[in-house]
Amino acid sequence: MKIAGIIAEYNPFHMGHAHHISQTRQKTGADYIICVISGNFSQRGECMVYDKWTRAHSALLCGADLVLELPFLYATQSAEGFARGGVDVLNALGCIDYLSFGAENADTSALLDAAALLLEEPPEFSTALKEQLSCGVSFPSARAYALASFLPQHCESTFTGSNNILGIEYCKELLRIGSKISPFVLKREGNEYSSRMLSDTYSSATAVRAAILHGRDYRGHVPAKCLPLYQEACAVSPEAMFPHVIYALRMLGINGLREIAEVAEGLEHKISACAKDVQSYDGLIHAIKSKRYTYTRIQR
């Protein structure tokens, strides 16, 4: 008996996710597929478009045999924390043979090489990374450049892209804990991860969410089995959080903001200043955004 694990958000579950489950079962020969999915908040720190029960139900309707929740502590972290939580949950089950995930570049050896280097992190690599960061480059770009410098057999593009970055972190955690789970990588198909445009092939979750929240027709971009669930559920926009977020930011003050995870290097001062005048959630994120910090880090 073979069992494959998948770590995901399914925000919401769409045709690409159904394809991933189907291909995982077909190519690994898995008898069962266990999915570990985030609860009601995403890795970006935003509320999911649908509640966790609706999303878990949709996965079960479309090929998953068991759905487990990724604890909030891990579900709302950066790629490293998100991967650590998901991998550790699957590894603790003691029955998973494969961890299946999609990547822009389905080169398993490249992802494993990068993971091994990051796990070891020789002084020379740390120095190269710090040099890039000192130039004002974002952390993901700086790390990709440093990885390519130390692993010239692989192109730099292998270390960029949201799914490649997450795949490297999955591999790193598997190596770190000495897991017997084997990574199984499928090339991600369809439009770009962050694209808001619906595609003729597999639309991104970003595009499907945008269609749902703006009242556009998204039928054909999600499995037919999921449509009744989505039509009955209440779709929630990140903007719905804005009154609560802005109230919390204004009440916390500089010292309180400094205690929030990932707030460092004086970022609390910029957050506090921007929180005084903005009128929308999206406006808040754009006001705080800088060259040094990624959009997703500010969202978290």
Task: Give the topology, please.
Layout: E1 3-8, H1 15-28, E2 32-38, H2 52-61, E3 66-70, H3 72-75, H4 79-93, E4 98-103, H5 108-120, H6 123-134, H7 139-150, H8 162-176, E5 182-187, H9 205-213, H10 227-232, H11 242-258, H12 267-274, H13 281-288, H14 295-299
Parallel strand pairs: 1-2, 1-4, 2-3, 4-5
Helix pairs in contact: 4-8, 5-8, 6-7, 11-12
Q: How is this structure best described in words?
A:
This protein is of the alpha/beta class and 300 residues long. It contains 14 helices and five strands. It has a five-stranded parallel β-sheet with strand order 3-2-1-4-5, with helices on both faces. Helix 5 crosses helix 8 and helix 11 packs antiparallel against helix 12. It is globular and about 55 Å long. The mean pLDDT is 89.
What is this entry, summarized?
This protein has 300 residues and is α/β, with parallel strands linked by helices. 49% of the residues lie in helices and 10% in strands. It has 14 helices and five strands.
Supply the key terms.
alpha/beta, 10% strand, globular
Beta percentage is: 5-15%
Number of strands: 5
**Largest sheet composition:** 5 strands, parallel
Structural class: alpha/beta
Shape estimate? globular
**Average pLDDT rating:** 89
What is the helix/strand order? EHEHEHHEHHHHEHHHHHH
By DSSP (H or I, 4+ residues per run), the number of helices equals: 14
Distance between the termini: 39 Å
Q: Assign a percent range to the helix content.
A: 40-55%
Query: Radius of gyration, Cα only, in angstroms?
Result: 20 Å
Low-pLDDT stretches are none
